[in-house]
Design a protein that fits this description.
Order of helices and strands: EEEEEEEEEEHEEHEEEHEEEEHHEH
CATH architecture of the largest domain: 3-Layer(aba) Sandwich
Helix content: 10-25%
Radius of gyration: 20 Å
Largest sheet: 8 strands, mixed
Distance between the termini: 26 Å
Shape: globular
């Protein structure tokens, strides 16, 4: 196996080939995770059918098939996507195999790998992952959370255009370090749908496609005047995006009553559909500790995209006015 070393989400990866979107690790580390691209485990298919257990089946379908089905088959987790892409994980989250059909691409496979698959590996290791984008403000991180299409990636891109470094898009791992919850950097890409790219860059055509058979575009955070936050920083605040609205009182940020904060945060964790009882209990305990230290705000964006800059101003004003509970130390890669 040709060893290609990457570092993402606080994990050192040893891959059989270069993973699109990831830079080579500048430091030699002992791998936390081995990844074989284009192959299955040698003993796959030798497990009796009785050892197969469905853990998750997406309610959404593509060409009649669930978008994602996850099974536990003997000593493996098996992720099967509707387009034929498959992942095989050992139960400890130390090895991954991936295959994809001829009509798919390695770039497309990497979007699954760097999203839900690695998020699940982190969950197996006891690390909570927010389904969010994260931006560095001074020596702290803010997390932008919300349902798909709520505008969190678009807002992160607007912050990037102002010169604020971006940690991650989609997967935001939180690692406890002393009294802080450290946000771990992802990789230097921020994905946008064409309409968001049109708003921010005038035309989606100026940004490269994530993969040739998908319309989504990406911002290269290592180029074009953008900044990628390469070192962990303590989480300073979380902003949950509500539905867009019109009116003079939006965009605005408001406090969330203490009894409702967990209800806003739990739906915005990654791979929460895959948690067993023990993992769910651990998640509630960890999120309660996060909410005990980190403020959570509800964001009401304006439906008119021309208010995007004002939305950034409103978030910045709120963050700067919020007393910080994080310590002064920051982690280093």
């Amino acid at each position: 196996m040709t060893n290609v070393l990457h570092f993402v989400y606080g994990l050192s990866l040893s891959a059989s080939q270069l993973i699109p979107g990831l830079a080579l690790s500048p430091v030699a580390r002992r791998p936390d995770l081995q990844i074989w691209l284009g192959s299955k485990p040698s003993c796959w298919g030798q497990q009796p059918e009785i050892n197969s257990q469905i853990l998750y089946c997406s309610p959404h379908k593509e060409n009649g098939a669930p978008l994602l089905t996850v099974r536990k088959v003997g000593p493996y987790f098996h992720f099967a996507y509707a387009d034929g892409t498959e992942f095989f994980l050992d139960l400890r989250g130390t090895q991954i195999w991936a295959t994809w059909p001829n009509r798919a691409t390695l770039e497309g496979t990497a979007t699954y790998l760097l999203g839900p698959v690695l998020a699940f590996v982190l969950r197996l290791r006891g690390i909570i992952c927010l389904h969010a984008s994260a931006v560095a403000i001074g020596q702290c991180a803010i997390a932008l959370l919300g349902s798909p299409g709520s505008g969190k990636s678009t807002t992160a891109a607007a912050f990037a255009r102002r010169g604020y470094p971006v940690f991650s898009d989609d997967v935001v791992p939180l690692v406890k370090e002393g009294e802080n919850f450290m946000v771990q950097p992802g990789y230097p890409r921020l994905c946008l749908w064409p309409d968001a790219a049109d708003i921010l860059y005038g035309s989606a055509e100026v940004l490269p496609q994530v993969t040739s058979n998908w319309e989504k575009r990406y911002v290269d955070l290592s180029a074009d005047g953008c900044l990628f936050q390469r070192n962990p920083l303590p989480l300073g605040a979380m902003y949950v995006f509500d539905v867009r609205a019109a009116g003079r009182n939006v965009p605005r940020v408001e406090m969330v009553p203490a009894q409702r904060r967990l209800l806003h945060l739990v739906p915005n964790t990654h791979c929460n559909y895959m948690l067993n009882r023990e993992m769910r209990a651990q998640e509630f305990e960890t999120l309660s500790r996060v909410l005990g230290r980190i403020p959570l705000r509800l964001v009401h964006p304006h439906e008119n995209p021309s208010f995007l800059d004002k939305l950034c101003d409103v978030i910045l004003d709120d963050f700067c006015a919020t007393p910080q509970t994080v310590s002064a130390t920051s982690g280093q890669e």
